[in-house]
């Protein structure tokens, strides 16, 4: 089983996770930019974070034979903090870099006017930079939030096939399917979607435009949920090719729209040259 995890925050995971992921069949991933766990106090915090996603984390992944890519953005939660909004001025110079395959994650958390503004501005950046977009949907008010998300996407002028709407469930999948966007599902140990419910949705909606991710981060999460979903699909009678569509071909097709996917893990030296970073002379 070859696996591309389209949404996982490796910064908060260990080398044991990388090793287990490699053994489970994970060969590529996308790490979207998200919050720090505590408030950022200035724009430099984003600059260091973006540089580390493009350099150090990519190097770490390559050591385990995993091709690392990222999506960069001001995430919805931090869009409400005035100390963070300045990042929208530095984002454009990052969106042109190798390894950046989307703008994300953007969207709504609490649906504030500040989030409206950051979301719209970043969809515009995606259009201008010809990049696909990864959109987070809120955990509260999910239906209302998803509906509003799709309205904003429609108004942005972005083609629906350039947009992946994530963290969907039974109550939100249909409107995203009807809108023509890609559908993302985060499979978690005890909240949101689980493998069994995921397989039921695949049986109902088919495998086209469907993506499954672990969205693993600092919270209780499991970076092997992609594989576990693949196994649950096989148990339920899906074929190997269906599993390959959901866990590999779909993410490759969606993020491939950036023109920047590199499915061979980048060698450490190449990452160093690309970022001009000296941090890669570290251990191992
Ligand atoms: Zn996330």
UniProtKB/TrEMBL annotation:
This is TatD family hydrolase. Gene3D superfamilies: Metal-dependent hydrolases (3.20.20.140). Keywords: Hydrolase, Metal-binding. One of its GO terms (molecular function) is hydrolase activity. Pfam families: TatD_DNase (PF01026). Belongs to the metallo-dependent hydrolases superfamily.
